[in-house]
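does this look right to u?? adenosine-5'-triphosphate version
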Amino acid sequence: MFSLTIFLAPKLNIYVLGKKLAQSGKRQMHIGFDDTDSTKQGCTTYVAALLIEELEKLGVTFLDYPSLVRLNPNVPWKTRGNGALCLRIEYPQELEAKIKETTEDLVEAHSDIDWKGTDPGIVFLCSNEIPQEITAFAKKAETTVVTLKEALKLICKFHAEAFGYNTQRGIIGALAAIGETFNEDYTFEAIAYRTPENLGTKRRVNEESIFQMDHALKPYTFNNVDSETGRVVITPRGPDPILFGIRGETPETVKKALALVKPLEPVERWVIFRSNQGTDMHLSHIKTLSEAQPYSSIVAKATVSRQPEIVPVRHVIFAVKDQTAEVDCAAFEPTGELRKIARQLVVGDEIQVYGAARKPHADKPLTVNLEKINVLKLAEQTQKQNPVCPNCGRRLKSMGKNQGFRCEKCKTKFKDLQKTAVAQERSLKTGLYVTSTRSQRHLTKPLRRYGLEKHGKPTEKLVAEWHSDASV
Ligand code: ATP
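got this back:
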């Protein structure tokens, strides 16, 4: 029933595993791909946009929106946002070879294969269900570092087919994108792409229209503008072909948003993606600080154990501990308001820290780069004050160190009285604080999404027009 082939093509270092032999009738296929772009050009979502059009021309039916799956943001070899893509289709058996060939040709043509660090991968899984082990692999790839060996083992086990270029690392993301079935929470993003002549130039979009869209559709779109700086954040910087991307709760909302934003340069094409962006899927809730692993993002309950201090350049560092370990926490300058919250913490405050765990160095312990702080319980903050006069109630004056106190009103002297600790009102309030929009990871759940989370298998059907090669 199955054949297993491994070969190296002269230039591209391709290999194929677990090739499935022909069957008849309509079939379902999940096409995952990743790592097509470099810091100099390209974008894997754009490859998806082109591939959707090519596959449609072949006559396939799309079973869902394309998946834009963000993987572990702490992976050191990512280009930008560690995004991987998956298309889920139904097709007549006789098209299978053509679909694969079209995908391979398109990925090859639009990948920066000569760039060191671009290692495209494609995975084809022909199946009506996504095996639970592949879903588990996706969760692992979102939260920790996984190996190519693990991916290849699953590809063999489930008779998928994989193509890898250069180091073939993209196969990891390609398989993980297939495995993310969005059963826990998800969002949507409508991405509009630029025309070739504008690539590399400053993006031109009417900013006022973005603010108006944000206001009109709130809270159902998110991360359009940074409220702290008043700056628009839907337009990326850099040489990639994205003009802007609008994230939101439903396909209808992001499509509406697309129509409200006024581009000042041509839009070549646009696509609506289903995504795990804004869902906090990268966070692992750990029971004790000693479980914090470098290259993962954690949520842990702990007590502030060292007073916050400001270090160059305006970063705030403090320590937290529990019964198992003490770690540093860093709120960097771009975290904005979160940095100001961190500064107000005092030793004894009980908090939950959310963020990426950075490897310890010779002189530094493991450090959590903060994305969120949940202030659970405030420690009592006291200030030493002179005692009040037992006779007239007026606050006493000190007569010098260990010399006692004197009342200026009734002139009585008190040799044995001590300073008293008086509780201070804390300016900090309990509650959840999130890093500024401009410094949020793609996966960070913004405050606006709290209460809007989705649970269970996605149910939305494809809207009539969910992509187009024409402008909006
Ligand atoms: P962009 O967001 O611009 O599309 P990128 O940031 O996604 O780019 P890639 O060029 O895709 O970056 O590089 C990420 C690479 O890391 C891919 O090869 C992917 O397969 C791999 N990868 C992703 N997640 C993990 C993980 N958890 N463990 C190991 N490797 C991973």
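The chain has four domains: 3-179, 187-280+451-468, 283-378+426-440, 384-424. idk if thats expected tbh
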